[in-house]
Amino acid sequence: MSDLLRTFLRNRKAAIGLAIVLAYVAIALAAPLLAPFDPIARVGRPHQAPSVEHWLGTTRMGRDVFSQLIWGTRTSLMVGIVAGLIVTAIGTFIGITAAYFGGIVDDVLNFLTNVVLVLPQLPLLLVLAAFLGQVGPWAIALIIGLTSWAWGARVTRAQAMSLKTRDFIQASAMIGEPTWRMILVEMLPNLLSIIGFNFIGSVIFTIITEATLEFLGLGSPLALSWGTMLYNAQTASAIMVGAWWEVLAPCAAIVLIGVGLSLMNFGVDEIANPRMRTLGNVAKALRIEKRLLRQRMQEASQ
Amino acid sequence: MRFLLKRLGFYAVAFLVAATFNFMIPRLLPGNPADIMLANSGGMIAPEAREALMATFGFIDAPLHEQYFAYLGSIFTWDFGLSIKFYPMPVADVLTQALPWTLFLTGSALLISFSIGTLLGVLAAWRRGQLTDVIASPTALALQSVPAVVVALCGLYFLAVRNRFFPTSYAFDPKLDPAWSWEFISSVAYHGFLPVVTLSVVLIGGYLITMRNNMIGQLGEDYLAMAEAKGLSDARVRYAYAARNALLPSVTALALSFGALFGGSLITEVVFNYPGVGNLLYLGIVGRDFPLIQGQLLIMTLAMLLANLAVDLAYVFLDPRLKRA
């Protein structure tokens, strides 16, 4: 395990991504300590610009944007992680089951996955949320979790299919290992990178989708999250009256966590698949080669 | 041919699933949508409309399976009932007016982002570790995780409100009448610029990364060394050999990105108050216009499936092996 962690951290992208995400987690955990004001109390005049007292200004209701942002981190992160877990659990289960059992089981599950993939997801989520009425963050996490597993199921299935043909899996099957052991002990550990990739991707997707749904007014307006902040800013016409801080603050928070998480994912991808490595070593090698060439040219000309 | 027939069958079933889903939602969830709408309309809906409304949802006095078949029949006759918000316009007419704008928006954004993203992906992989790659790949990666809401709101604030470079809403100047005149077309381009750019920015990162990864997968292949050994020009090896083969998985990724395309278009239309079907869905939800919502969902599904079908056709063209199968 510590080996895995060391490999992960040696990848610079993954390390930076992890640092960003950990910072968010720390902010979410320490929200009551960090937030200077009660996020839902009127603590200033409406639409005050950022100042020493209100770092990110105030909303039209006179609430402190910075405090809202910090408390919102808690909600958005929790929703992202919960939905990410649901998505990953369903996707992994369906993907491995389809690949392992094959035949009719695979046909049915694969068909189901493909159908879900060609349906327009955001409109569907909107319609669901519209019929449910304004829902809280947990309900949103559940809805997103239950409807977004198809992509993960598809990639997990593909990976598990190729794994199934490996010798060690065939050998374990021949010595009569029970199915649960085949799946949990032989296959699952070898799929960890794709599962991790799926989980991180799902967390990004959920955070974005939650913010989008809430921005459109389908979340509970009482919840404290980045999406509700955007919704309140929109209904207060913050952009039109020039209160940019009310809109840009949650935007920046969403973008930064997204970048952090996808850096982690890029790292996972590079570790699992070394050919994808960008830059670092190749660029370094190229630079050294160029320098050597130049030196040789100089020596030759002298 | 068999491949395409199989896909067509699949799409037919997928559409049936979506339609069934659409049929089930109002029935599974608490409350009768027709009554909710009547309560919200504050007496604006006439009693005759209530009958039509109930019929739209298939809430006719009949067993469930008969309701279901009546509902399916109404889909094929393009009869989605009357809109509440745009009463007494039929939902089908409301949607037909909005559809061209959405197609214009999504079509142009798709064309721009896929061609630029793919081209940059080819270059980034070809010159791995050099300037193009070092700048383009991390930028694409970051863009991939930026939601459409954020891009749209930032575009609106910086380019339409703070600096009045572009208009904040509508698809063309409301003072103009639609016509094939230079004035009208330039107005459409001017109003469409920010929405199209927003949508392209959201999509481009994914295409770039996918193409780059596919290209890297091709780089070590023997046929490329052979092409180079034949003395073909660098550009020819890159585009006609490596990129052509790397394009195949990219086209699959294209099909998978249609969800993001239509979702992104929905948000963009709402933020820029653009009169497409996505904005209609939003207005329908805010105004509790359930016939409009359901009709829109079916249109969206149909658009998704047709887009996927188009990709299948492209696939047959790109991969000659499928023609024989």
UniProtKB/TrEMBL annotation, chain B:
CDD domains: TM_PBP2 (cd06261). The keyword Transmembrane helix applies. The chain crosses the membrane at residues 7-25, 98-126, 138-160, 188-209, 246-272, 292-318. It is a multi-pass membrane protein. Keywords: Cell membrane, Membrane, Transmembrane, Transmembrane helix, Transport. It comes from the Bacteria. InterPro entries: BPD_transp_1_N, MetI-like, MetI-like_sf. Residues 99-315 form the ABC transmembrane type-1 domain. Pfam families: BPD_transp_1 (PF00528), BPD_transp_1_N (PF19300). It is found in: Cell membrane. One of its GO terms (biological process) is transmembrane transport. One of its GO terms (cellular component) is plasma membrane. PANTHER family: OLIGOPEPTIDE TRANSPORT SYSTEM PERMEASE PROTEIN (PTHR43376:SF1). Belongs to the binding-protein-dependent transport system permease family. This is Peptide ABC transporter permease. It comes from Tritonibacter mobilis F1926.
